[in-house]
Structure formats: C-alpha cells, structure tokens
Amino acid sequence: MAKVLMIQGTTSNAGKSLVTAGLCRIFRQDGYRVAPFKSQNMALNSFITADGLEMGRAQVLQAQAAGVEPSVLMNPILLKPTNDVGSQVIVNGEVLGNMKAADYFRYKKKLIPDIMKAFHTLASQNDMIVIEGAGSPAEINLKQDDIVNMGMAKLAQAPVLLVGDIDRGGVFASLYGTVALLEQDERRMVKGLLINKFRGDEEILRPGLSMLEELTGIPVSGVIPYLHLDLDDEDSLSERLDGHKGQGLCDIAVVRFPRISNFTDFNALERVPEVSLRYITSLRDFGTPDMVILPGTKNTMGDLKWMRENGLEARILKFAAQGGPVFGICGGYQMMGGQLEDPEQVESGGSMRGMGLFPAQTVFSREKIRGQVRGIFSKVRGIFAALSGKAFSGYEIHMGKTSFLQPVFPLSDLGGAQKENCYGSYVHGLFDSPEIAATMVKALLKAKGIDASPETFDETAYRERQFDLLADGIRGHVDMERIYQILEEGI
C-alpha cells in the first residue's frame, strides 16, 4: 500500500491545492508513482474524465502534475453550490441529488464507504498518495463527523502538514490558533508547519519561526516564497477574477456570474499576449470590450436574473445589436436563447424569458449530460469566419436540452448556434485547442484595423513548465529530507 501524506490549511486559499500539486510533481520527479486525493471538494470548476465522470479541477491539475490520468477516484465527493444554502452532491462522478447544507451535514457520514473504497483503490495502485484537506481543520462547528480534514487523516492514517498563508497577514496566529483548537490526538498527527506565499527576507522571519515552534511543539518544515505561476485555479476565490492582465490590444470582457463555473475555459485566451481579459460584475466595469463572453454557471436562471437586475443584460444586448461579438458557453449559451423552462425545479423552477439572441428554448431536466467530445467548426459566419473547419476538443457538462424554434446555423458538428456575431456552445475547453484562441484574437484585432498574427500556444508544454517551476520553488524552500522521513514514519 502507498505511503500517505496530508496537506491541510489554516484557511481556504492558503495554498493547499498548489502545495499538493507541487509535492506530487516532486515525488514523480524522484521516480515514484503518486496520486492526489481529496475526499470532498466544493467547487464549481469541474471536469469530465475519459469515462464520462465528473470531478473537481483541482485534482485534475494535481493529477497532471503527477503525470497520471485524472480519475474520479481522486475526488469521490464533489459539492457544487446551487445557492447560498445548498449544493448539488456528486458521488463517484455521478449526481446523487441536491441537498441543503444542513441535510448534507447529517448525511455525509454515510459516504465514508465510498471515500475509503476510492482511497484504498488508489493506494493499491501507487507508491504515494498526497491528500488535500478543505478549508480549515479548526472549524469547530463542523468537526463532528468530519470527512475531509482530521477525520480523513484518521481514516487514512496520514501524517499532516499544516499550511498557513503569510501574504494575507496573521500567519503566526492562524497556525498557532489552528493547532490550539485541535484535539490532543489530532495535534500529534501534525508533523510539520509550512508558511506559504512569503515575500521578503527570511532572516527577519526567523525569530517568529522559533517562537512558533516553541509554542506548538511542531517544527516549521518550510517557508515557501510567493511563486508567480500561471496554473488553473480551483474556484471563485481565484485572484485571476479580481482584475485583468495589463492593457492589451484586444479587450475581452467575461461576465463574472455569482455562480460562475469553469472560468478556466478562458485561460487560453488570457495567455495570448495581445489580450486584456477582464471579469466584470457591473455596468461600470463594462467599458468598451471587443468581445463579451457569457461563461458557464451552476444557476442559469438565477444568474440571468442577477444580470437583468444590475443592467448588464441590457448593455450586452445593445453591444450585440451594434455588431459586437457575444460568445456564450454552456449556461451562458442557454441564457442567449428566447426561453428557459424548469418544470422539474432543477434550478429555480417555472419559466423565464431569455436574452433572445437565438430563437431557442432550453428545458432543464434532472439528467446531467456529460462526456468528453471532439468536433469541427462548421462554416462560421461573422467575425470568426476563420474558425471554419478547425478542430477542437473539450467536454460537455450540463442539465438541460436546447432546441430551436426557427432554423439556425450550427456552430459545429456538435451543435451550438450562431447568428450574426452571436455564438453559443455547450463545449467547455472550446478555446484550448492550439489554433482556436489565436484565430479568434486575430479576427478581433482585424476588426479594429490591426494586422497581427498571435502565436499558437502549446498549452501542455506551458503547463508542464509551470509544474516544474512549482516543484523547484517547493524543493528549494521545504525540508524535503524531513518530508520523506515523515512519509516513512507515518503517524
């Protein structure tokens, strides 16, 4: 069976996901078969595996760092929030149903057999498993029946490294306070403390490290610097959504819905040097974009209502009427139709008028359509005509079927729609194929009278380089000899 190590954090966004990915990369570089594991993930950024099952993208990223195919075994439970008090519960890659938070809290212990079956299967196939926790192990209101932090560490008999984020301040208090709130047997399982996202002179920090070790009785195993990396983010806490990259020749505005999902769909566009990609939430953010993107969402009707109430819908409709290109993906595509129907109360229930950019109707149902896909753009009209005949790949993941009340031109052999400069597709990852992003940006620049040929982007090679930089950053600032010793000794 595999040796096991668990990464927990004092807060959300402390860096657990990337530390886990970095250790997976290091162990792979050192010749071990390694896999990531997270018993329960809460995120709207999900992925469809080769066998058509749904899992969190954070574990996909970690699997890529480990050089292995993503498997739903790495994330047996995925919670996708549908509103502030409830989530869609996905077990072993398939929808179990929607639950309110209180109902799930009472139910979740029944999922331990699913968690352990997945964990033991992975452990039998690998030399090492790196487990990621969620949030903080010191959520004292949630500790009862925990299945993702110390509860998971006990089930897996995993020694723990506790990560604190110094960039936001208060790292000593958060590390000490977290340890202090653990039970005595749980404290013994914490074998090392990691300080993450450090900027500055470590010598100035050193007296605090000594005091922290004295107070907790746990050694500080590393101080990881703030690493300037470009890797896919897990959820809406991502700093990527807070601003945009410089002032490029081409301005792309992505609507940041309250329930935005799979925003990683647009990273390939953002990485084109000529592009400034912005996430917008209000009319004052709108500016003068060259293209507007309506992304995926876990609540199409709720987020369309939000956009209608804050005025963004009317502004986007005006933009489209003036010939501005609007591109909808998944939930954003559904919004662009004329009517939304939810007879089974999958989302909000009832009927709702859509944006009317396509003569289409979407009817939501409890059946989730999911799968990896490959397709070819049809004869594309309008500004993106140069996409015609180009191949793409990605995955579909949606609840609802879209039908057309009048004939429309399909966007590809997989369906979708196009009308004038409005385009829609159910395919996530549509822009990731090597030529697609560059072709689209070239077309947008040409419409502005700018003759430029953006380079095609090798996403895989770029991502591999980022993983190596992540591993270098951790290896250079963490006591890896001590980490291997912890793996050998266990708890």
UniProtKB/TrEMBL annotation:
Pfam families: CbiA, GATase_3. Pathway: Cofactor biosynthesis; adenosylcobalamin biosynthesis. Keywords: Cobalamin biosynthesis, Glutamine amidotransferase. The active site is at residues 330, 428. The keyword Metal-binding does not apply. Residues 251-434 form the CobB/CobQ-like glutamine amidotransferase domain. Catalyzes amidations at positions B, D, E, and G on adenosylcobyrinic A,C-diamide. NH(2) groups are provided by glutamine, and one molecule of ATP is hydrogenolyzed for each amidation. Belongs to the CobB/CobQ family. CobQ subfamily. This is Cobyric acid synthase. It comes from Massiliimalia timonensis.
